[in-house]
Amino acid sequence: MNINEASEYTKLSKKTLRFYESKGLFITERKENDYRVYSPELIEKIMRIKLLRAAGISVSDILLLNSNMIGLEELLNKQKKNLKESRISNERQLELCREMLRAYPDIKNVEKLLDKEADAVNEEAQSIFCADIPVVLGLDIGTSSLSLAVIDDKGNVLDTFNITNDAKTERRGVQDAENILTRTLALIDVAERTYKNVRAVGIAGQMHGIVYLDSEGNAVSPLYTWQFNEDDGTSRIQARQITGMDVPEGYGLITHYYLTEKGEVPENAAKLCTIMDYICLKLTGGNSPVIHPTNAASLGFYDIKNNCFFIEKLKKLGIDASLLPRCTVNGGIGEYKGAKVYVPIGDHQASFLSGSAECGAEKCVLINFGTGSQITIAGRAEAAQRYNADEGIELRPFFDGLYLKSYSALCGGYAYALAERFIRSIVYAACGDDSEQYELMARLAMEDAQKKPPIVCTAFCGTRYDGSITGSVTGITPDNFTPGLLLRGIMRGMVQELYDAYEKMSALENMRIFASGNAIRKNKLLKAAVCDIFASDPEVLPDAEEAAVGAALFAMRLFNGNAVL
Asked: How far is residue 56 from each of residues 79, 228, 439, measured CA to CA in Å?
């Protein structure tokens, strides 16, 4: 078939067929005259694409499906969940439309104008996607997912891709580094099918973890993530006694100290680095990793003021300094398929960079709800030592002469997940239904909105500065002893832990509060709790992949010659 026949058969416009091809959903054969040829097999593939698009599945997700990076069942379940979560929002939008119809008697004229504008926007979007415009890619190598963002030269987000990080091993807190590398390369390949003019690549990802490399830059161990802790803090205590520095559990050099004592460091290990540094090394074809201060500090025993490791303290622990990667600030590490690749940065700093891009870092407070949760503000060097390390407030390197003061709650969104597990067990005992119960929890939490919930401390996993702390529930009365109000109490507890830290950070007045993470994007009651406790309506970041976006912004700044540290 030619394109006219294919259009007639599939009931898709020629423009749509060209658009799908430009996005890399399929490739047509060409005749000698360069006319497209649509084989029966290709037509069948296009019909599958049409069906998936009819179900509301994005082009980006179809690309991942075509690349075998996500299964059809997983993709359909993901879309089903998205549609369920958007149902309430859609109902509200419908009501707003009704209100507009009542408010504007001349709505017909408005409709014509809107249609005209929509057509113009569509045409512009199609041309953007199809054009050979320069873009920057940002990668986020997360603990549970791998993400990629595409931005243009103005910092506008053009596209995002997200797949599951299924690199878990049987050992808790340990992941398969080679699996992560393979899936990351495949993710880049998917993006490059659409965006042909990639100028630069930025990388961010999970901090604290380490992987060992041999002298040729090949991984000789799995990735020991920030969740790795097999000795219940014994290594941390010993290191503190020896060096006088208290480095939290899960930090890379505490992990290395433990593995050394256990005799588990590979004999041919020549270097250690974060997973992002390893990915960068493989993209650029090097053999020795390079690390940015934002990642170096996450390993522990790092002097953030002078941007170097505390070598003498590491010697006291018997740690060979030659294993450490070389530190750099603004380094271009090499190239990948002609695109500049820059030194990776921490996902925390990347997310803050993305959130503060509009208003400036010193005016920004960022709250993030993920598995854990964080609250972060930025400050100048003169305040670098005025922070409460003994209360879990950490100081981390940032950019433009700034430091980040941050508090991390170990439980965070995990507290709500534990509540879901509790509710699910009751539902299963009652009726045998073992499905997720978040929808039920949302309905329960909406009840008795005027009543005061119990007070819940959500430190169920302890804190970074005191692992002995546990969660608690107080203030229970006959009026609030209900599942819905307990859920409200849990959400308020999640927020209260961050607010308590915020009060200790000596933040400036009149700061803009931003929020990120799917928990606050999808749970309006959690957002309401933030509004109430912080006495401010947070601005929710529009891009779910804010760390990937931040990595792309970092690379774009370096590509344009702007120093950022």
From this structure: 8, 39, 21
In terms of Cβ atoms closer than 10 Å to its own Cβ (0-12, 13-18, 19+), residue 356 is buried
Are residues 491 and 523 in contact, defined by beta-carbon separation less than 8 angstroms? yes
What are the strands, taking DSSP E only, across 19-176? Answer: 29-30, 36-37, 135-141, 145-151, 157-164, 174-175
Q: Which of 60, 49, 48 is nearest to 23 (CA)?
A: 60
Chain segment 482-536, per-residue pLDDT in tens: 999 999 999 999 999 999 888 887 665 667 788 887 778 778 888 889 999 988 8
The answer to whether residue 330 scores a pLDDT higher than 50 is yes
Q: Which domain holds residue 306?
A: 135-343
- The reply to whether 308 and 162 lie within a common domain is yes
24 found inside a domain:
yes
Predicted structure pTM score: 0.75
Q: How far is CA 182 from the centre of its chain?
A: 19
Number of domains making up the chain: 3
Token look-up 């990735």 returns 223
Which CATH number do you get for residue 425? Answer: 3.30.420.40
Strands (E), 128-283: 135-141, 145-151, 157-164, 174-175, 198-205, 211-213, 223-224, 271-273
